[in-house]
Design goal:
By secondary structure, the chain is an alpha/beta fold. It has helices at 10-17, 95-102, 115-133, 163-170, 184-188, 192-203; strands at 25-34, 39-49, 52-57, 68-71, 76-77, 81-86, 107-112, 139-144, 177-178, 207-208. The protein is 28% helix and 26% strand. Helix 4 packs parallel to helix 6 (192-203).
Length: 213
C-alpha cells in the first residue's frame, strides 16, 4: 500500500517523534548502518508511523498501547537499496513480479529504463509500466527511453520515440530524466534529433543519463 504524501503527514510525524502520538511500529535495539558517517550504531530504535520513519534513536516515548514493538537486537537496520539502472522487461517478468523478487532482499527503489518495451509498444508501453509501478510497494522511477529504435535503419521495431513523445513523458510523475543516451556518435557529430532530446530534458531541469549501475 502506498504511503500518504509527505506534505500531508508533517504534523503527525512530528507528534510521533516528540512522543506525543504513538508510533505504529517500533524496531528496538538494532544495529543502525549509518551510510552518511560509515558507522554502525548499536542499540538504535526506529519508530514508524503511516509507513514512514518518524524517529531514529531512542523510541521509548513513541510506544503506545497499540504500537507493535519488534525486537531488532542482533539485526542490522539499513536504508533500502536503490537500483540506479535496470531494464525490468529484460528479466522477462512483469514489474510486479520483479518487485516481489527484489524487495525481500532490500531493494526498495529502482530507476528503470523501459526502452525494450518502447521498441515494441512505443510510449503506450512505457505508460503501462509507469502505471503498474504506481500500484507497488517498490518505488519505481522511470527514465524515458532515449534511443528507440536503438539502431535506426538497421532493425524493425514497433515504434519510434520522437522528441515530442519524450517531452510528454518527461511531464509524468515519477520521471526524473532521460534514459541512457547510448547514441554517442549522434552526440559527438551533432545529430539534431539526438541533441533535441537532450535539450528537451535539460530545459525541464531533469537529468540526462548514460549507462551506469
Amino acid at each position: 500500500m502506498r504511503t500518504r504524501p509527505l506534505h500531508e503527514m508533517t504534523v503527525e510525524l512530528t507528534e510521533v517523534a516528540m512522543g506525543r502520538k504513538p508510533a505504529d511500529t517500533v524496531l528496538k535495539g538494532g544495529k543502525l548502518v549509518n551510510v552518511n558517517t560509515a558507522e554502525i550504531l548499536p542499540g538504535t530504535d526506529v519508530a514508524v508511523y503511516g509507513g514512514r520513519i518518524a524517529l531514529v534513536g531512542d523510541a521509548s516515548p513513541c510506544v503506545g498501547k497499540e504500537t507493535e514493538v519488534m525486537d531488532a537486537s542482533g539485526f542490522y537496520l539499513a536504508p533500502g537499496f536503490l537500483d540506479a539502472h535496470v531494464h525490468v522487461e529484460s528479466s522477462i517478468v512483469t514489474l510486479s513480479q520483479f518487485a516481489g523478487a527484489v524487495l525481500p532482499w532490500g531493494t526498495t527503489g529502482i530507476f528503470m529504463d523501459p526502452h525494450e518495451i518502447a521498441n515494441v509498444l512505443g510510449l503506450e508501453g512505457v505508460r503501462l509500466m509507469v502505471k503498474e509501478g504506481e500500484t507497488l510497494p517498490l518505488r519505481v522511477f522511470t527514465t524515458v527511453p532515449s534511443c528507440v529504435p536503438a539502431a535506426f535503419g538497421f532493425e524493425d521495431t514497433g515504434s519510434d520515440l520522437t522528441r515530442e513523445d519524450i517531452e510528454e513523458a518527461l511531464g509524468w510523475p515519477g520521471v526524473p530524466g532521460l534514459g541512457e543516451m547510448m547514441n554517442y556518435p549522434g552526440v559527438i557529430y551533432g545529430d539534431p534529433g539526438v541533441h533535441g532530446k537532450i535539450q528537451a530534458t535539460l530545459q525541464r531541469g531533469k537529468v540526462v543519463t548514460g549507462h551506469f549501475a
